[in-house]
Amino acid sequence: MTPLGATSLVPADNTFALLAVFFGITAIGALLEKTRFGRRVSGVMLVIAIAIALAHFRIIPAAAPVYGAIWTYLVPLAIALFLLRADLVSIVVEGGRTLVAFLFGAVGVAAGAWLGAQLLDLGPFEAQYAAVFSATYVGGSLNFAAVAEAIGFRDPSALAAGVAIDNVVGLGYLLMVGAAASWPLFSRHFAWRAHRLTDVGDQADAVERVPTVIDLSLALGLAALACAAGTAIADALGQPAYAILYITLLMVAIATLGRRWLRSIAGPELAATLFMYLFFALLGAGADIGAMLGAAPALFAYVLIIFAVHVVFILVGARLCRLNHAEIVIASSACIGGPPIAIAFAVLFGWRRLAVPAVATGVLGYVLGNFVGIGLFEALVR
After folding, report:
1. Transmembrane segments in this chain: where (predicted)?
2. Entry pTM
């Protein structure tokens, strides 16, 4: 692996050249994700793998000033952009019973992350791993990045190992959930009101408008404003490290109060996804392959514990609240995989009535993920 400060083909101080490489890696990863192999591996893992290879052969450096800029500026902007859809009124109204299942699953993730940290020795980054894994399995990859930034978890090798385990074990879990959706035993035990699942909601066939320059300018402007205000509030309260929590609260308030107007803004997720791809590229650039492999066995077991406790909580909650098997599948996939996976399952199994709840619960995960991850970190380091 390239030592910090070692000479690379693209110098560490050549910001524009490094950005060109990173945007190229992002484009290749996004393009390959459309192939059959890419859909199985995910664009995130492809971006990390390409960046690792380029750093290993000293084409790009393991550390550079622009990497810090991505951490500091683009990660908060990404989560703020995603939260433009975090309208609490719509989440509660449209989430319905699936939202109840999701909340049980989210509590299960937090409990599993805490339990796993008690049972396993995860090394010097135990509390940090608990924070980022609980955040990503309640919210998504953007919460992984945001919480890592908030708690000062910047070791590229440790983070890349976490992302790799997340992708491998997470994919296996989602495949299992998809298979369970068609198990007769599962559907019989959780069959209450399942006959209504194929009803088509009014919003099921909505078409997303192509974003314009005006859309992106407004979205980025609101996100930047929330980041500036959230950072100022955190500084004033003496909690600069946790600015992302105040940014989250401000964006949720903006999204809720301006929900009717903000629905007309197209494409904030596009810019947010681009920023997150750049984040994962810098993780790959700074990763140490040996350290990644060394951390893998313990992290593998740790994620399995999180998933096991998550399943127990969501099944118990479903039994207590009389939820059906489809609501369990959508809520669990929204927790672990995020809204795109949850929506895909709703369409795949013909549960058109659950398409909107899949989005609503997934967006709520983006809101809650930062609080769960940072809260668990504080609990474990004390």
Report:
1. 15-32, 44-60, 66-86, 98-117, 168-186, 240-258, 270-293, 299-321, 328-351, 363-381
2. 0.72
